[in-house]
Structure formats: structure tokens, C-alpha cells
Amino acid sequence: MHLKSLTLRGFKSFASATTLRFEPGITCVVGPNGSGKSNVVDALSWVMGEQGAKSLRGGKMEDVIFAGTSGRAPLGRAEVSLTIDNSDGALPIDYAEVTITRTMFRNGGSEYALNGDTCRLLDIQELLSDSGIGREMHVIVGQGQLDSVLQADPMGRRAFIEEAAGVLKHRKRKEKALRKLDAMQANLNRVQDLVAELR
Ligand code: ATP
Predict the structure, then answer these.
(1) Which fold has domain 2-145?
(2) Each residue of 89-98: pLDDT tens digit?
(3) Which long-range contacts link 175-182 to residues 24+ away (Cβ below 8 Å)?
(4) What is the ipTM of this complex?
(5) Of 127, 132, 142, 186, which has the fewest CB atoms closer than 10 Å, so is most exposed?
(6) How far is residue 130 from each of residues 10, 51, 93, measured CA to CA in Å?
């Protein structure tokens, strides 16, 4: 599985439709200060369902919509599409290529689509939840965060690597399973008490 392309329309500084194609391996986005490199990274987390305006370096969610420049009027909607190569079947969906699209209008509210069909945010989250690239997987390391990774103590660094590697997801599942086991044990104790009383 790898990210194939990202198309931005009316997202932040990308007023016109712009498509970035990624090949397997490392992709570098280079450009002068303020040219929109971080906006591309913001678009990636936004299309995967990011809900926090601050994480997108804005004050409110509508700030992702192109706000206009001296030569170009503001737009009424932002749309980002992310196409993922799923020929290895890493995503639990019967398509070799998956396109996730998120659209937002100025009057608020987001719409999501999977391969062109309208869907819920939950569907996107579930699809990505085991892939290691979902919104909550913290695989996107922003500017500034790099410093905190480099300066973290060994335990802090380990926590960061565990999150990026997807260990956190398994730890949460383990905790959930242990809680269930505790509840089961409590029920079992109760049943054993009842059996003992009835004897
Ligand atoms: P640096 O190298 O300094 O980190 P960068 O290439 O990462 O810069 P970004 O932070 O991605 O640049 O882009 C900032 C630019 O995006 C600014 O010029 C800002 O005005 C513009 N921008 C952000 N949001 C919007 C918006 N909603 N509408 C229009 N332009 C926007």
C-alpha cells in the first residue's frame, strides 16, 4: 500500500486544482518559504478526517478554504482527494485503488466519499484504522515536532516510535481485552457464589 496521489481544490493556498503524484519510496516537496509545503501535509491529515482546526494551523475549520488573494476571489468550498494504491489488499476493501475525498463548504459541514460514493467519517476511520495511516496514528510529523522528537529522552522517543509503528493501537486493544476479562471474571465469581448458595 502506498499513497499514489493527492489532489487539492480550493484547499488553503491551492485555489486551482493541483495534483501531486507520489511514487513508492521517498518523496520530497521543496519550495520557498510560504509556498504551501505544509499546506500539502495539512491536506493529507484533513482528508483522513482531521477535526481540529489547530492541528491544521487555523483558527476555525473553514480556514482551510481558499480565502482569496489580491488577484483572486475567495472560494466557497475546499476539496481534497487522496488516492491510495491498495493492490496488496492492505486496506480491507475490494478495490486495488481507493480514493478518499473530503469536501467542506463555507457554511460548515464536511462531506466524505470513498471511490466517489458518499460515506461517513466513521467509514473512512474504520477503513484506515488498521493501516497505520489514519488521523490518530500520528505518522505525520510536523515542523517543530521534529525538534521534540530529537530532544526527547529515551522513554519519550520510544513512545513516539511506538505510536508511529502502530503499537499504540495494539496496546489499546490489549487494555480493552483485559477490561473485558476482568468483567468476565467478576461475572464468573458471581455465578460461582450463586451455585455455592444453591448447593
Ligand atoms: P515554510 O517553508 O515557511 O514553512 P510552507 O511552504 O510550508 O512555508 P505553508 O505554511 O504551507 O508554506 O503555506 C503558507 C501560505 O499559505 C501562506 O502564504 C498563507 O497565506 C497561505 N494560506 C494558508 N491558508 C490559506 C487560505 N485559506 N487561503 C489562501 N491562502 C492560504
Answers:
(1) Rossmann fold (3.40.50)
(2) 988 899 999 9
(3) none
(4) 0.95
(5) 186
(6) 30, 19, 12
